[in-house]
Amino acid sequence: MRFDVLTLFPGMFTGPLSESILKRAIQAGRISVVLHDIRAYATDRHRTTDDAPYGGGAGMVMKPEPLAACIRAVLAMTDNDTGESAPKPPVILMTPDGEPFTQRIAAELATCPRLVLVCGRYEGVDERVRAALIDRELSIGDYVLTGGELAAMVVIDAVARLVPGVIDAESAAEESFSDGLLEYPQYTRPAVWEGREVPPVLVSGHHGEVAQWRRRERLRRTLERRPDLLARAVLTDADRAYLRTLGWRVPVAGGADDGTRIATDRDGADDGTRIATDRDG
Ligand code: ADE
Description:
This protein is α/β, with parallel strands linked by helices. The protein has helices at residues 14-17, 20-27, 64-76, 103-109, 127-133, 149-160, 169-174, 207-225, 237-245, 260-267, 273-279; strands spanning 2-7, 32-37, 50-51, 61-62, 91-100, 114-119, 124-125, 136-139, 192-193, 196-197. Strands 2-1-6-5-8 form a five-stranded parallel beta sheet. Strands 3-4-7 form a three-stranded mixed beta sheet. A two-stranded antiparallel sheet has the order 9-10.
């Protein structure tokens, strides 16, 4: 899989791409990341890439011409992996007003042979470039970063690890979110650390009991931390019965009760997060 990244700060990508799993994936040829410096497409003497917003206001806006020229040049490039007849890759703008990025979107993007990621800077990107050349807009969360670079790295990381051969297939299938539940707690040696013991069932050698304990821990943790996820999780009758012992109320079909109410009542943390979560279902 090939990622083309359009940025004013290509140097920001050096660290994340030259360590650990991404480094190995690149070395093994499973993924490639091609960085494009938007400034190289500015044509004036000062290589200007931003300008003041029409109508006034704080900050600077990314100028349309260099960014559009860069996107068009990248779309015109092919490589041995994608070939001349490859379909046009999606052009994705990283922006805080984009669609919330989720594991589901990561899995969807991992099926594309190539992605073009555009990193916004300054106060934003001229709206006409968005209308003309951007296919999709993604946000990695409800906070504002100094630019789209870190967000693009998050997307590359989350997508790359789903590309076959980048990590162990079993880990990808077992992890949080892939089946709608959070992970169970993990322990390793020593069996007692600073007076804290590993749950005895994990050292009991009873595989069936370990599996049941882990399943219940996942259910308990999801109910406590992300009850909104339970509405879309794949649950057995035994799962539901266990959740009920923890105070879970079965969501009414078609209703707005997705279990969130329980956690909201308990921790008073209804900050609107649920709205973003519901949108991606
Ligand atoms: N650029 C600035 N903030 C961002 C965010 N939260 N997600 C994606 N791109 C961004």
